[in-house]
Design a protein that fits this description.
By secondary structure, the protein is mainly beta. The chain has helices at about 35-45, 280-285, and strands at about 1-5, 10, 15, 20-25, 25-30, 50-55, 60-65, 70-75, 80-85, 90, 95-100, 115-120, 130, 135-140, 150-155, 160, 165-170, 170-180, 180-185, 195, 200, 210-215, 220-225, 230-235, 255-260, 265, 275, 290-295, 300-305, 310-315, 320-325, 325-330, 335, 345, 355-360. About 5% of the residues lie in helices and about 40% in strands. A hairpin with a 5-residue loop joins strand 13 (about 130) and strand 14.
C-alpha cells in the first residue's frame, strides 16, 4: 500500500485535495461462490490473498499479484483479466474471462492499399484534440490500408506542454516543423534542443522522448508507419539521460535532427529547382528519404515514376498546380500521395514554393 494524498469530500460537498490518506486502488469482480474462484486465482494464476472475510463463511477476498489488486465480492460484473503469458483463454468459476497475451507483440504493418489523393487545408473535418492537448488534422484519411498515417499537428497557444516520457512502437516516424518552435529531449541525445521551422527529426523505434514546451502557433507535420501504433509511457526514465550516444542503434535506425539553417540548398536533378536534403536515407538504413524542393528559376517539372510504397508531398509554403489525373491547385499545408507507376509533376510554382517529399524506400524516386 502506498501512502499518498488524495482528494477527499468535505462535509459541505467540496473537495479537500490536501487530505492525507493511506490509499490504494482495486478492481472489484463479481463472485457469488468464493472458494472455487480462489482455487483458480490463487492456486493456478498465482495471486495471493490480502484480506478475506467473514472468517466463518468467507464471501469477500482481496487479492494481489501481477501488478493488480482485485476484490472478489458478490454482485457486479465478473470482468476480464488479460495476463502476460501463453495459454488458452478460459472462464474462471466466478465468470471472469481470463486471457493470455504477449506483453510485447510484434509490430503489425498492414498491406499497402495504394491510392491517389489530395488533401487540402480547407477541406474535411477540423483538427481534433489528440495526445497532450495537441490538435491533429488527418492528411491521409484512408491511411493507405492502415500502413501510413500523416498528421498536420498544431499547438495554438504556447507554453509548457503536458507531455511525459514516452516511446512509440513503430516502423518509421518522422516530423518536420512548419511554424514556430518546440523544445524536445531524446534518450541518449544530450540536452533539450529547439526544433524550429524547416527542421526535420527522425524518431527511431522505441526511442524515449518528451515534448517540453512550444511557441505560440506551433505547427508540425508527422508521418508514421503503421498508422495504428502504440504510444507507451516510461515512468522510470528521466530525460535528459546521463549517457550521450548519438550513434546508438534503435532497431536499425539512428536518431536524426536535420537543422534547416545549417543545411545548404543544392541543385535538384531537374534544371531550375533546388533541393535541401535531410540525411534521412542514411539514418534509416535506406528505409526512407525526406527532402524539400523549391524553384530556382523554373516553374514546372515532370517527375519520374516511382516504384516504392509511398510518395507523399506536403506544401510547406507557396503554391503550385499538381498534375496527376488532372490538375489540382495546391497551397500551404495541402498534401498529396502519388501511387507507384504514375507520372506526376508541378507547374505554375510560386517563387516561395517549398514542397516536402517523403519517399519509402529511399531511392524509389529521384529526379
Amino acid at each position: 500500500m502506498v501512502a499518498c494524498k488524495v482528494a477527499a469530500r468535505t462535509e459541505d460537498g467540496g473537495v479537500n485535495a490536501s487530505a492525507p490518506h493511506d490509499s490504494f486502488a482495486e478492481v472489484q469482480l463479481g463472485c457469488e461462490d468464493l472458494s472455487p474462484a480462489l482455487e483458480v486465482f490463487v492456486g493456478e494464476l498465482g495471486f495471493r490473498i490480502e484480506t478475506i472475510f467473514p472468517a466463518d463463511d468467507p464471501q469477500v477476498a482481496t487479492l494481489s499479484g501481477h501488478g493488480l489488486r482485485l476484490r472478489l465480492a458478490p454482485g457486479g460484473d465478473p470482468g476480464v483479466i488479460r495476463m502476460a503469458g501463453v495459454g488458452e483463454a478460459f472462464v474462471a468459476p466466478n465468470g471472469t474471462w481470463i486471457e493470455f497475451v504477449d506483453p510485447d507483440p510484434p509490430l503489425d504493418v498492414p498491406p499497402l492499399k495504394a491510392e491517389f489523393l489530395v488533401t487540402r487545408a480547407g477541406e474535411g473535418p477540423a483538427g481534433g484534440a489528440g495526445r497532450a492537448g495537441m490538435l491533429y488534422r488527418d492528411l491521409i484519411p484512408g491511411r493507405l490500408g492502415g500502413r501510413f498515417i500523416a498528421s498536420h499537428i498544431s499547438i495554438p497557444t504556447g507554453g509548457p506542454v503536458a507531455d511525459w516520457v514516452h516511446f512509440h512502437k513503430i516502423r518509421f516516424q518522422m516530423l518536420v516543423c512548419r511554424r514556430g518552435w518546440v523544445r524536445l529531449v531524446y534518450e541518449d541525445q544530450g540536452e533539450p534542443f529547439l526544433f524550429k521551422a524547416g527542421d526535420c527529426v527522425l524518431q527511431p523505434p522505441r526511442i524515449r522522448h518528451r515534448v517540453l514546451e512550444s511557441s505560440d502557433s506551433f505547427e508540425v507535420m508527422e508521418i508514421g508507419c503503421p498508422a495504428l501504433h502504440e504510444t507507451l509511457a516510461d515512468h522510470e526514465m528521466e530525460l535528459p539521460t546521463k549517457t550521450l550516444a548519438p550513434d546508438r542503434d534503435f532497431g536499425g535506425q539512428w536518431f536524426l535532427h536535420a537543422v534547416a539553417a545549417q543545411t545548404p540548398w543544392t541543385p535538384h536533378g531537374v534544371a531550375g529547382f533546388e533541393v535541401r536534403e535531410t540525411g534521412m536515407a542514411a539514418a534509416t538504413g535506406g528505409l526512407a528519404d525526406v527532402r524539400t524542393i523549391r524553384p530556382a528559376g523554373a516553374r514546372a517539372f515532370t517527375a519520374p515514376r516511382h516504384d516504392g510504397e509511398l510518395f507523399f508531398g506536403f506544401v510547406m509554403e507557396g503554391s503550385a498546380t499538381l498534375d496527376c489525373r488532372g490538375g489540382h491547385a495546391i497551397g500551404p499545408t495541402d498534401a498529396f500521395v502519388i501511387p507507384a507507376g504514375e507520372v506526376w509533376g508541378l507547374r505554375e510554382a510560386s517563387d516561395d514554393l517549398q514542397l516536402l517529399e517523403v519517399m519509402l524506400p529511399a531511392g524509389a524516386s529521384r529526379a
